[in-house]
Amino acid sequence: MDADAPLVYVVTVNWNNAPDTLACLETLSRLSYPNYRLLEVENGSTDDSPERIAEAFPQVEQVRIPENTGFAGGFNAGIRHALEKGAEYVFIVNNDTLADAGMLEPLVEAAAPPDVGAVAPLIFYATEPERIWSAGAGRSRWTLELTGNHGREMSIPAARKPVEREFLSGCALLLKRNVLENLGLLDEGFFLYYEDSDYSLRLRQAGYRLLLVPQARLWHKVSRSSLGSDSPGERYWMARSSVRFFRKHVRGWRWLVVIPWRLGSASKTTLRLVSHGNFRAARYYWRGLWEGLWNEHP
Fold it and tell me: Which among 11, 151, 202, 207 could bridge 78 via Cys, Cβ 3.0 to 4.6 Å?
């Protein structure tokens, strides 16, 4: 351990998914950064995950929460623990990911300037190791929607310099102690999805830069840590959280653009689900929109 290197807490969250979490911790335990600790948050698991993980990785700190508090709630518990233990940086990472051993060093280096609020690695599909899953994104000033499809159509950046973005995925995000203390933690009103878009926007509104660091790499198994792509649960929470996000951030004239845009997006999503015979997911999607409209109060 190098005491001169800033202390980084690496935090992952598990809910009834020991196999992926164990594989993730195996790669995280081989990180070459000289001063880091691993923390695993048990987010209301009802199986034998806590015991299996503690037995396999006794050196990993563990925080247990009695019930599932969602993505933001689980990671916030880990962030609070890390800050109490003196962390200068907290790296939150999905448990369905695999990390490159040299990932942390370039992230910590890129995060050092005081105007940088968060940094993220280049994230690839685990099943297609050279295909980009997320390189961050831009954001439309008119609709607040993300642009650029997470860079999934782009080639792997040749430049080694960090790239400024308007959005960084919460799948893997390095956060700074002073930023967390100044801005606050993730909004736990987002049970699943949109918490990273919300936090990215809050960081930008506070004047911080967001940086993608191409030489830091991570591989994501995609939707294994949530509910599965286009499952009824995924569609429900994506819809409900989207309503919370726009109600929280849209003001004044922007509603004249956002409402028709979102209605068009909802129609397009519904047609896609129905055309694939996924009627149950379509019903849950509209249930999420409805309950978001009537139950969410950002």
Answer: 11
